[in-house]
Design brief:
It is a single chain. This protein has 10 helices and 18 strands. 31% of the residues lie in helices and 22% in strands. The chain has 2 domains: 3-215 and 329-413, Aminopeptidase; 217-326, 2-Layer Sandwich (Alpha-Beta Plaits), CATH 3.30.70.
């Protein structure tokens, strides 16, 4: 990409991150928050302004569009590129103040709105590799939203490049921006017929060169504790405090194993992420993660056994556990057809980048899409420290992701 295109990529990204798009797990609306539609409608209009085809904002909150082929496409697969617009519910996405550290010199970056938030290369060694880059951070009190507005900006820039240079050979390309990925609903309503693609890629990965075709498998667990509520002045021998039982449940959980902070690599975990309630009723929300289904089932069994044990210890309470599947390791399907992965590796190498192939300790919209029959590996965006006030990204790394995507569509155009 030339410098003008890189500047436009930066402008696009900065514009997107200033729009609050937090999703809300407790909402039953689609999308879960109306504010996501602010960015979705903007993207819809920008795609129309670029002159692409079939642009629509669906009733379930996905923006879809087609970049038409520049070569005869009858025998070519249709390739889709996806990114999600929402940010996580538990870190503020309101009044995001992105800061551009131009020509980064390697010094520590103290974020001005919270002096305790400092980016240094000691805990974040990737910073050492970005000297001379334009590094974008938050101001310290919100997340940045690079997860996944970096992916959104990369795809939109790719579309801009393709529409202004019709000499780039490619087949039909489908574009899709989804809501609610962070709460596990990103492609819940998206059908294969609506996406209308043979293969797809999510732009939702980390550092330069990363390509992922293996993710966690994921379940959600909710433990509900209904106690016996009574006036505390007359509670002797009668009250059953749901919060006290919730505390006992949490205390009984594994502390030195099976937690996010004590696991790494291919180890899974049980993560308690929200507790709601009162003395009358409490709810504990968990995510269960593992690369293998047996491991995932074992995590669920821990929660279920603790539920039964606590119920047996306090029969006056009502304690239930509900486990809901969320997504499955995309490897189970992609290992049977590695063509989209192999072409992505080739596209990365053509950009002069060393491919980084490793499982991701998380999931993407591609996990669900792959399970639905559309093989969907995940590509890098350059984001770092997602879901944090210390989130950051390099514009030059995002530009390299655009180059990879353009290489990729040309490689697929050669797959007659």
């Amino acid at each position: 990409m030339d410098q003008t295109s890189i500047e436009r990529l930066s402008e696009r990204f900065l514009r997107y991150v200033k729009i609050d798009t937090q999703s809300d797990e407790s909402s039953e609306e689609v999308p879960s928050t109306a504010k996501q539609l602010s960015l979705l409608r903007l993207l819809e209009q920008e795609l129309r302004d670029m002159g692409v085809e079939d642009v629509c904002l669906t009733g379930y909150g996905c923006v879809l569009a087609t970049v038409p082929a520049t070569v005869p496409a009858d025998d070519l697969p249709t390739i889709a590129f996806l990114a999600h617009v929402d940010t996580v519910p538990h870190i503020s996405g309101t009044d995001v103040r992105p800061i551009v550290h131009s020509d980064y010199d390697g010094a520590d970056l103290q974020l001005p709105d919270d002096p305790t938030k400092v980016l240094t290369s000691e805990p974040f060694p990737a910073l050492k590799t970005k000297i001379g880059h334009d590094v974008i951070t938050t101001s310290g009190t919100t997340l940045l939203g690079a997860d996944d507005k970096a992916g959104v900006a990369i795809i939109m820039t790719m579309v801009s490049e393709l529409t202004k240079d019709h000499g780039i050979a490619h087949g039909d390309i489908r574009i899709c921006f989804t809501p609610d990925e962070e709460i596990g609903r990103g492609v819940e309503h998206l059908t294969a017929e609506d996406l209308a693609a043979d293969y797809a890629y999510t732009l939702d990965g980390g550092d330069v060169g990363e390509i992922t075709y293996e993710t966690f498998s994921a379940d959600k667990a909710v433990v509900e504790i209904e106690g016996v509520s009574i006036h505390p002045g007359a509670a002797t021998g009668k009250m059953v405090n749901a919060l006290t039982l919730a505390a006992k449940f949490v205390t009984a959980l594994p502390e030195y194993t099976r937690t996010p902070e004590t696991t790494a690599g291919r180890e899974g975990f049980i993560h308690l992420y929200t507790v709601n309630g009162s003395a009358a009723k409490a709810e504990l929300y968990f995510i269960l993660r593992d690369f293998e289904l047996d491991g995932l089932a074992a995590h669920g069994e821990v929660i279920q056994k603790l539920t039964l044990a606590l119920q047996a210890a306090e029969p006056r309470a009502r304690i239930t556990c509900t486990i809901t599947p969320q997504y499955r390791n995309m490897r189970y399907w992609l290992e049977n057809n590695m063509e989209p992965v192999n072409l992505a590796i080739q596209a990365i190498e053509q950009a002069g980048i060393e491919p980084v192939i490793e499982p991701i300790r998380g999931g993407t919209d591609g996990s669900r899409l792959t399970e639905k029959g559309i093989p969907t590996p995940n590509l890098f965006t350059g984001m770092h420290n997602p879901h944090s006030e210390l989130e950051w990204v390099s514009i030059q790394d995002m530009a390299r992701a655009v180059d990879v995507c353009i290489n990729l569509v040309q490689l697929w155009a050669g797959q007659h």
